[in-house]
Amino acid sequence: TTCGTIITDLELDGEGRPRYHMRATKKASRELRDISEPYLKRCTGEALRQAGVELSDVDFCVF
Question: Over the stretch 3-32, which tens digit does the pLDDT of each residue have?
Fold first, then answer.
């Protein structure tokens, strides 16, 4: 689960304007690495299916 791996909050800057901050915890990279592969495979597999092609038809991908 990725709960608690990314922390977001609003803080005021030096001029009193709100700023959005996003911070990653120490475990974030490991957690995101562990869950990203299955989701990437599922999403790209569905996109390929809808396009009527197979992975072997693709030379390269840009993310």
Answer: 888 999 999 999 999 999 999 998 888 888
Provide CB contacts within 8 A for 61, sequence distance 6+. Answer: 44
- 1 in a structural domain: no
Give the C-alpha separation, 54 to 51, whole Å.
Answer: 9
SS3 25: coil
Supply 30's token pair. 């490991």
Please tell me the distance from the alpha carbon of residue 30 to that of residue 11, in angstroms, as a whole number.
27
pTM, full prediction: 0.49
The residue range of the domain holding 35 is: 26-51
